[in-house]
Specification:
329 residues; alpha/beta; Rossmann fold; DNA polymerase, domain 1; two-stranded antiparallel ribbon; 13 helices; globular
């Protein structure tokens, strides 16, 4: 994941990241302002790109990082050696924030979705570019794999994954194909699953699509296996509650199903209607935060050219108001 260098000296930061650059880093640092020091939270450590940039911003910065991926935990061990007491890592899903005793973060960041490391490692089963076990778990040591889900999920759960989370229009055909393939072994490998789905999805009319026909279904299955929307809904209030007054909560999303609950939660904090159908009277609203991004920030042209994966990224942020600033909306 890449960004356009915004300040002198960040080329050295690129070298330290060994080529792994986090999405919208310039914008994230502008919003969090870690150069002022303080205790920060990176709720999605991944490859550590955001964490490193925050720690490098000031020697007065401390950072706590979370990730449920065991591979991320191993990468975090190198950070502990390098940054010492300034860096703490917990092998936790970010919705488990309530288990931490830490509070009063100056800023918190969550970069949702699948990391570059997970996508690029075929054996994790997130991609269908190579044959691999159909796993897709963020933490492969817990829960059931995607293959197990596809073999055993009730019809309603399968429909939710393909139709609602994957937003696949041909969901009936895809679900029938999956159910029909149970017990054949075709669901156990990513390449055979992708072929099965592609055969079930009608070819688009007119100009062929550049998107593989199994892309949406793979997204929906991954989100269902990892309970990604449930985890997000639990994380948002827990993260905001742990901010210090004036602290910033920033979230990067990669599709509308992630962005929508973030947008609504932030609007609620800002005392604004959560959505077009929210008709609550103003006296029932309390402004607890200031919107720092009334519209989501998106990647710049330089970043898009260097890193196509950033194309769908949206960044939203709010600043928590101090007690003296709280007011009816």
């Amino acid at each position: 994941m890449c960004f356009a260098f915004a300040r002198p000296g960040w080329e050295a930061l690129y070298t330290k990241m060994a080529g792994h650059l986090p999405v919208m880093l310039r914008e994230v640092l502008d919003l969090l302002a870690p150069q002022r020091g303080g205790h920060y939270l990176d709720g999605t450590f991944g490859g550590g790109g955001h964490s490193r940039a925050i720690l490098e911003a000031s020697p007065q910065v401390r950072l706590t990082a979370l990730d449920r991926d065991p591979d991320a935990a191993r990468r975090a061990g190198l950070f502990a050696e390098e940054f010492g007491y300034r860096f703490t890592f917990y092998h936790l899903e970010f919705s488990q924030l309530q288990t931490l005793t830490e509070h009063d973060y100056a800023g918190a960041l969550f970069d949702l979705g699948v990391s570059s490391f997970q996508l690029d490692e075929a054996e994790r089963g997130f991609s269908f570019g190579k044959s691999a076990p159909t796993d897709m778990r963020m933490d492969p040591t817990t829960g059931r794999s995607a293959a197990e889900f596809l073999e055993t999920a009730p019809e309603a759960d399968l429909v939710r994954a393909v139709r609602d989370l994957g937003e696949e229009q041909a969901w009936r055909r895809v679900c029938r194909a999956i159910v029909g393939a149970r017990g054949t072994g075709k669901l156990a490998r990513t390449d055979t699953l992708a072929e099965l789905v592609a055969d079930a999805v009608p070819a688009p009319r007119g100009k062929p699509s550049r998107i593989h026909p199994a892309t949406r279904t793979f997204q929906g299955i991954r989100m269902a296996v990892n309970d990604e929307l449930g985890v997000l809904e639990r994380m948002l209030p827990a993260a905001f509650d742990r901010l210090a007054p004036g602290g910033v909560l920033a979230v990067i999303t990669f599709h509308s199903l992630e962005d929508r609950p973030v947008k609504r939660f932030f609007n609620r904090l800002a005392g604004r209607p959560e959505h077009a159908g929210d008709s609550r009277p103003q006296d029932e609203r309390v402004k607890r935060a200031e919107l720092l991004t009334r519209r989501p920030l998106v990647a710049g042209e330089d970043e898009l050219a260097a890193n196509p994966r950033s194309r769908s990224a949206k960044l939203r942020a709010v600043r928590k108001l101090a007690a003296a600033e709280l007011q009816p909306a």
